Amino acid sequence: MAKNLTPDFTVPGLERAAAGRLIDLLRLRLHALNDLHLTLKHVHWNVVGPHFIAVHQMVDPQVDRVRDMADDVAERIAALGGVAQGTPGSLVKERTWDDYSIGRADAIAHLGALDIVYTGVIGDVRAAIKTAGEIDPATEDLLIEQLRDLEQFQWFVRAHLENSGGSLTTARAATEEQAAAAAGA
What we know:
Layout: H1 16-46, E1 47-48, H2 52-79, H3 88-94, E2 105-106, H4 107-133, H5 137-159, H6 176-184
Parallel strand pairs: 1-2
């Protein structure tokens, strides 16, 4: 931990040092969720092409749910005795990923890039679940619930990227730009 996140108090039955580890873990989850809902809104505003309306309407419920997830994580941080840093400056300073790289683009290109975004977010949530599970079942449960929704959202995205043979058009892509190009090809 870069700074001491051990709270002065925490929930009953949890050691303060363990709560500090959870607060640190949840801090990045909060940043990731805030970043994700802004990224999804960016896609909503910048999607064009023949699949515009389908993607435009598909993304908004995801934005709403991801905002709710961020709120749940922030409230868990507070319950554990921590401070939920939800400011843009904190997010940008502490995040471990780059900003979303696709601007105004075809719907399928955005979905290709979003597949990469969801893969990263989901992988990080799975790692957080493993760590939280060793410390606190309530925090683990919160993250598991969010994982189910995030995986469903990725499935919605991937349904647009899957070909009739059952392969993803973005399967070999490692970056958002590669995935956008592969999806649009």
